[in-house]
Please model this.
Amino acid sequence: MSARERELRGSTAVVGVAESMLGEVGPGISSLDLIGQATVAALDDAGLKKSDIDGLFTHSAFFNLPTVTTAEYLGIRPRYTDSTAIGGSSFVADLRHATAAINAGMCDVALITYGSTQRSSSGGLMTSGQVLTKSYESPFKPINPGSGYALAAARHMHEFGTTREQLAEVAVAARKWAQLNPVAFMHDDLTIDDVLNSRMVSTPLTVRDCCLVTDGGGAVIVTSAERAKSLKKAPTYILGAGEAHWNMHISQMPDLTETCATESSKNAYEVSGMKPSDIDVVEVYDAFTINTLLFLEDLGFVKKGESGAFVEGGRIAPGGELAVNTNGGGLSYCHPGMYGIFTIIEAVRQIRGEAGARQVDDVHVGMAHGNGGSLSTQCTAIFGDESTL
Amino acid sequence: MPSAVLNVADFTDEIHPEPVYQALLDKGVLAYQRCDVSNDVFFPPRWLCPVCGSDTYTWERSAGEGTVYSATTLSPRNKEPYVVGLIDVDEGFRLMSNVVGLPVEDVTIGMRVSVQFKDVEDRGAIPQFVKVDA
Model:
């Protein structure tokens, strides 16, 4: 970390957050329409007008030149744009990029947004961009991205004795949180046995170890701490962030049991001056149950290899020791292809005290952690309310 | 032990990394690159050493033996189940492949395997791995 980045602590704040319609929006509503819905709602949340937006940050698998397409649709002419394309973690990285741009005077009000009709459009998984380079993995017919995560889960089980039941605990905890979230996609009861006995996708992961395929969009508005003070809601300050990627392909990942969330979180902790025990709510990108286990370790909440035992007995479920994925996560709330922006929205709502039945008591510090590719890209952001400045 | 260094011209007229690798696979050779400067082994094929950045390297022939680093079984509807594995090849590189020739439930992490080659339409030969009997 550079000393200069440390000076950016708390220099920017999230001032508006919103989701679009979620779940299955049906035909006739496009991914851009969901961006439009979320943007209108986030501007209202912030007390800002569309004409205030002069920085645009987005990524999409639905259209090319993502910021250009989005700006045309919204009717804005941003003076700063960023189409960071590192998968589902892009939106968490955007927080750090927006902080840099705002501090450099290159924009004042940054809109970070995403929309996807993955469920209504295809019912299947979509990937970003055409792959015209030769693959050294595809001839062996892995399911992407599921098999990469399955390989990581299998290795974690081999090295640390992690069990399928412990993986299932992650899905069960997510479901219990989702049952407290009225807009979550899944509300039915879910047991460990249900997870274990579901259709096997790629051993050891069943369909209930895997994220949902839903529609959905979100918007996050970031501005300077100074401007944030005069807006509608109490600012949620960006205290620090970090980003890392070490590999694209799972076969190139040096150690399947350690992600570069170790590196992204190290920067976020150093800039923010926070440590894991300071974090009141943890919102991680749970594309698969193994993600949550790996990230609890790599973000420093438990030691390497101990996450399986840690999540037993509902320790990350409502009322547990550590509040993780309080919206129900990608496993039970919403997963429209790329989930990262929703980790930000939930962390901000928890810090504001706006999370309704799922609100965790006395939240001052929250973490959003995004993941992209096959455990490839990791981005961590730490937020705090005014008491943390 | 014989040198692993390959004289590529003995096998193919190709000179660029991707086609050389494929041409060697098609002749039943699993090859990898070794940097002439840093001595690091690298895979998959590319123009420069990902460790030191040098663009001078030598092709070497793998003995084709390795260890299963991780494995997952896929069971598509109405098709035979199969194993996708990551193989740590003894010369010091890892690749994705299939582990074949035994029941999927018998494939284990840490198992010793050796290469064989399978022709795939529109691609050419690909490396697959079978269990090495102890």
Chain B has a mean pLDDT of 96.
